[in-house]
Structure formats: C-alpha cells, structure tokens
C-alpha cells in the first residue's frame, strides 16, 4: 500500500484572503468543501466536487458532515504563566498584578513547574481551536525554554519571549538592563525560527523597564529585525498616568516605545484603549498592530476599545484573550466580548469580520500572511473543525440560520471550547476526536 503524505478533509470550508470590511470578495465559503494537505501544507482548498478528482484514488477522505473547517485561530496576546490565576478578582490592573500575577510568575523559576503549566496551557489552547499565539513567559529564561520545548513537541507555530522587567516590580522578578537583553539574545539564537518557533522581544510595559532597558530592547530589535516585539500600552488610566510620570519627555504613553525604536512591523501592542489620533497614526505608519483584548478589558474594568477610530485610521487590528487578565481561552468567547465592546462604542462588528480578525487579521498583524491564517496553497495546514450543533442551544439556533453571517454570528456569540470538534497543526490532529473516514463508514 502506498503511504501518502496527502490528507484530505471534507466539510464546509471558511477562510479569508482579505478583510471583509474592505473587500467582500475576500471571504471564501465552500458549502461542501475539500481541504487537501500535503506534507503539513495546504495543497488546495475548494469545492469537494471540483477537487476530489485531483486526489490519488487511495487517499482516504476524513469527512465531517455538518461541520465547518476554518483556519486555526490566532491569539495575539496571552500569558502562559497566568493560566492558574485566571478569574482572580481585583479592583483593576495594578492591584491585580501585585496581588496575583507577580506571585504566580515567581514560581516559573522552577523549570518543572514551567513545563507542567506550558503543557496544560497549550493543550487548552488547541482544545479551544487556537493554533498560534503571541505568548508572554516570565522574567526567567527557563520559562521560555519550557514553553518552546512544549510547543515544539506539538509542532505548533508559537511566538514567545522572556519578560524584560528591571524596576517597579518585586525583587524576585527583576532582571537588569544588561542581563535581560543578554538572556533575550541567547534565547533568540536558540529558539527564533527553530522549527515553527518564533521569538518576541518582551518588555512587559514601560513602567517596569528603566530607560536603559528600553534603550537596549530597541537596539536588540534593530539587530534582529525579523523577531517580534510585544508589550502592553494604554490599558488603564492609572497605568497611563504612571507611565507618563516615569517618562515625562514622551509625547504620550505610546510615544515612549516609539522613542526607543520599538514600533515597527511585527510589534504587537496589547490593549491600546487610551490612545489619541496621533498615536493611532503612528501605529498605522509603522505597521505596529493592536492586540485587542476585550474579555480582559471588561474583567479588569480597563475601558472600551474604540473600533470606530481604529478603523478610520487603518490601524492593524487583531484579537486576543490576554489570559489571565482575560477570562477565557476561547477565541469564540473573545469574539462575543469584542462584539459587545463594539456595540457600546456605537459600532457594529459583523461575524465575518470577527472570524477574519481571529484568523487572517492576526496573521497579517504579525506579517505571517501566506504562512498561517488562511488556506492559500503553501500555507501551513493549521485548522479547526467547528461544530455548529455542539450544544442543544447552538443546535436549535443554527437550525434556522439562513446566511453565513447568521451562522457565524451564532457561533461567535454562543460558542466556546465545546464548539471545537477537532484541531490540527501542520496537518496533524492535536485535539479532538478522530471521525470515521468516508471509506470506513461502509
Ligand atoms: N500590564 C503589564 N503587565 C500586564 C499583565 O500581565 N496583564 C495585563 N492585562 N496588563 C499588564
Ligand atoms: Zn497582557
């Protein structure tokens, strides 16, 4: 028997080649679709009837009747060391960091703890259909090794980095400007582009990095221009005032990062709630991206992201959970919160746009279009099998949906981890049940 590197999956298919906000032709839906994967990469995606004849006769097709295959979700901002403190109550960001976050992060000096949490975290992500994330580790280099080892074991495309933090935090979580950068460079050499792993230079946020550390982080980002950068900005008004008082020469909180050369392609800024028009113009001009974290912003009472201004100013947008400030690993639950935040700001977020933001929008924000985020030929075959009948209520609601928009809207508002029947990374199942193939049904 021939062993094929080719696999084929039949279901309804949904993916994007452009932002539905600007181009309705960029939304692709094949009611009875076929996804053909060759050696972990997408070979073709389209109508089953058209594509089936291109398959070698003995390729067994996995069939998911009534289900929808989408690209794996992309969560552009999440903290793996905060897994165990999700849903910890506090009156706002700064007390939450002091009371829960910093003590939890201290434990990641122990590599065994770090690996155990990384394994759980990645299993939970893929169970929710997320195949790529931009991930904060802790200040400890061992926490980065543990994370990338766990991600490599699952062959996931992950972006992560060591937190840089040399002031305004407990002594037990503090690096120094020089050591933090030296350790980051060692980790870049070890992990960046090692298999599917990518490195992000990770100053936690301006208040916890000295000017010297910010300066060195900017120099590191220039020395390694294809690495990522991730940080927090303009999340909470107390935090904004604190950042401004620490860097009084800056035009705004965002401008602190700009001055140190930390705004560029592949730079991801979480939250961006309290930006002004000039800040948004800099985001657009430098192709820096927003990681929009609605469950976290609501939970911590940080504020409501301004969709209207961000869209008007062409700011690159992506969607993120921000666990443990965020309250769910599910990008469907995150869409639910994003929708309501948009409504509170007087705008409307169509479901196709929410699915775009959770897939190709994330990939574009990370300059990874063509690699992940959709089903163009040659893309890495990371995908989800969504079940619109996963719960009694979803089944009842989706039975009467008569447009794609309505169906996706029901999934976004009512869906969660239960709606993800299976998840595949580079063509290999990493979560969910194997279904009977067409051939073995008979
Ligand atoms: N700002 C600085 N650190 C953090 C963090 O861990 N979570 C959130 N939500 N905001 C931050
Ligand atoms: Zn965060």
UniProtKB/TrEMBL annotation:
GO molecular function: guanine deaminase activity
Cofactor, how bound (note): Binds 1 zinc ion per subunit.
Domain (Amidohydrolase-related): residue spans on this chain: 68-430
Enzyme class name: hydrolase
Pathway this chain belongs to: Purine metabolism; guanine degradation; xanthine from guanine: step 1/1
Pfam families in UniProt: Amidohydro_1
Keywords: Hydrolase, Metal-binding, Zinc
Catalytic activity: guanine + H2O + H(+) = xanthine + NH4(+)
Cofactor(s) the protein requires to work: Zn(2+)
EC number annotated for this UniProt entry: 3.5.4.3
Family note: Belongs to the metallo-dependent hydrolases superfamily. ATZ/TRZ family.
Function: Catalyzes the hydrolytic deamination of guanine, producing xanthine and ammonia.
Protein name per Swiss-Prot or TrEMBL: Guanine deaminase
